[in-house]
Design goal:
The protein is built from ten helices and eight strands. The chain has 220 residues and is an alpha/beta fold. It folds into two domains: 147 residues, Rossmann fold (3-Layer(aba) Sandwich), CATH 3.40.50; 63 residues, DNA polymerase, domain 1, CATH 1.10.150. Helix 1 packs antiparallel against helix 4 and helix 3 crosses helix 4.
Length: 220
């Protein structure tokens, strides 16, 4: 493990901003409307981090495109009112920025809505790179999005932590060669997160400050 952390990459939904209930509601509304099925929250939580198209396609390939449209219309109409900032995020971003840590976002959320979510709280001002599905051919859990962010930021994977709320984020980090941190406020089951072997567990976002800065202070 590197003695210095120079870069932090964050997932967005469920990690920096709380949209988990909105995502669950959006899936439930869509699946009820098109397939007349009631899907429990616990089932949807297991899919967090996977691409929207893939998840809806697993329920119906035939109605996949129509369901994606319905999901997006429902989700985007309620997005701003249903989104909140995860506690400790701004304090953490400010502290890391002051110490010269490079920050970026790697999200499966489309750019327009990702930017909208970050701009609600001013998160975008701290990010030196924002990688969305429009930026790569392949998506999480393929390492390409993280590798794209590292390329843009001119950072090495060995000195980078990927922070996320799903096993998909953690597995993507492993594939890209970065360290990984799981946020324990995730709606994903804790057992599922632990099975993805994160290097760090965060009970609150501010714990990331000490993880990143203590090794540097020790060598100061």
């Amino acid at each position: 493990m590197s003695s210095n952390i120079n870069c932090i990459l964050f997932d967005l939904d469920g990690t920096l901003i709380d949209t988990s209930q909105l995502i669950i509601d959006s899936y439930q509304y869509t699946l009820k409307k098109h397939l007349n099925i009631e899907v429990p929250s616990s089932e949807i939580a297991l899919t967090m981090g996977r691409p929207l198209v893939e998840i809806l396609g697993s329920y119906s390939q035939k109605q996949q495109a129509e369901m994606v449209r319905t999901y997006r219309e429902y989700n985007e109409a309620r997005h701003d009112a249903a989104t909140s900032l995860i506690p400790g995020v701004m304090e953490t971003l400010e502290a890391l920025t002051e110490e010269g840590i490079t920050l970026g976002v790697v999200t499966g959320k489309r750019r327009q809505l990702a930017m909208r979510g970050m701009q609600l709280f001013g998160i975008d001002a701290y990010m030196q790179a924002i990688v969305t599905p429009e930026d790569t051919m392949l998506h999480k859990p393929n390492p390409e999005p993280i590798l794209k962010a590292l390329e843009l930021l001119e950072q090495s994977p060995e000195e980078t932590i990927m922070v996320g709320d799903s096993p998909v984020d953690l597995n993507t980090a492993h594939s890209a060669g970065t360290l990984s941190a799981a946020v324990l406020w995730s709606v994903a089951p804790r057992k599922q997160l632990l099975a993805a072997r994160p290097d760090f567990l965060l009970n609150q976002m501010t714990e990331l400050i000490d993880i990143c800065l203590e090794p540097q202070r020790a060598h100061a």
